[in-house]
Write a structure and sequence with these properties.
3-stranded antiparallel β-sheet, 6-stranded antiparallel β-sheet, 0% helix, 9 strands, mainly beta, single chain
Length: 101
Amino acid sequence: MVKPQEEIRNEADFWYLDIYSTFKNIHLKFKLGEEFDETTADGRGVKSTFTLEEEKLVHVQKGAPADSVITREVQGETLIVTFTVVDKPNVKCVRKFKRIE
């Protein structure tokens, strides 16, 4: 079983999202509300924007084949990551991470 890890941190104006897995590691550096170019884990080029909404980190990805929204929220010791395809709101993927520190 693959057990990916996510680390989110904020330093001054910049935020960092590091995703570690057996297959590929992703490191993003961004400012809230500012669009930037991102290459997804599967190699797609998208335009991404992060915002904070009601204590959730919201990650909007715009690009082919579909736009998506990834929300990250902490509930107790659990990080809940929900991936939704914009044109298909009934199609969702939910991943839960437990705090290891």
